[in-house]
TrEMBL record:
Gene3D superfamilies with a match to the protein in the record: Phosphoglycerate mutase-like
A single Gene Ontology CC term: cytoplasm
Species name: Lactiplantibacillus plantarum (strain ATCC BAA-793 / NCIMB 8826 / WCFS1)
Binding-site residues, substrate: 9-16, 61
Family annotation (SMART domains): PGAM
Gene name of the encoded protein: pgm5
Designated name of the protein: Phosphoglycerate mutase family protein
Single annotated GO MF: isomerase activity
EC number of this enzyme: 5.4.2.1
Keyword list, A-Z: Isomerase
EC category: isomerase
Length: 199
């Protein structure tokens, strides 16, 4: 029997606003990030969408976002933390490398600087969420994670060509809806409710 996973990216943070690399390091939600998370919570309520379980990464920006979306109890999971960018943490985003032409991501670049590879991130997120959704009482689940972690999870189930064809972009507070059955996730749709930033 198919189950449903709603995987959400956290709200905008100070480092997002300042265009700083933010993986293992953390920064607080901005007023926009708070408002956008509340908007997602209002959407779920208006649509009658409820969750039997909720999870966030262990990072504050994710748990703060979840607490703005729902008041229900939740558990924090290390397995859905953001990509660790090593010594690049907190530095300007202009220092990010160009995508690996084969893997079409940062590939192994950050490993030499104390960080993770794209495939290491993907593996831990896939294993963590598969274990979560395999639990017998988990039928409709909310997870709040991060841009890089969520994107690598998506790439396990959709090719990069298909992601680009569908125009899937993981803005802050974006929610991806998946169906889960027998160890596999199927992309259903993306919900982008964040207010357009005119600044």
């Amino acid at each position: 029997m198919a189950k449903t996973l709603y995987m959400m990216r956290h709200g905008e943070t100070l480092f997002n606003r300042l265009k700083k690399i933010q993986g293992a390091c953390d920064s607080p939600l901005t007023p926009k990030g708070i408002a956008d998370a509340q908007r997602v919570g209002a959407y779920f309520q208006a649509q009658g969408i409820t969750f039997d379980h909720a999870y966030s990464s262990t990072q504050e920006r994710a748990s703060d976002t979840l607490e703005l979306v729902t008041k229900q109890p939740y558990e924090r999971l290390k397995g859905i933390k953001e990509w660790n960018f090593g010594v690049f943490e907190g530095e300007s985003e202009v220092l990010n490398p160009k995508p690996d032409p084969v893997r079409r991501s940062h590939g192994d670049f950050f490993c030499q600087y104390g960080g993770e590879s794209d495939l290491q991130v993907q593996d831990r997120v896939v294993k963590t969420l598969t274990a979560v959704m395999a639990r017998p009482d988990h039928h409709q689940v909310l997870v709040v994670s991060h841009g890089g972690a969520s994107f690598m999870f998506l790439r396990q189930w959709l090719s990069m060509d298909e992601i680009e064809r569908q125009g899937i972009v993981l803005h802050n507070c974006a929610v991806i809806k998946y169906q889960y059955d027998a160890g596999r996730f199927t992309f259903e749709k993306i919900i982008n409710l964040a207010a357009t930033d005119k600044n």
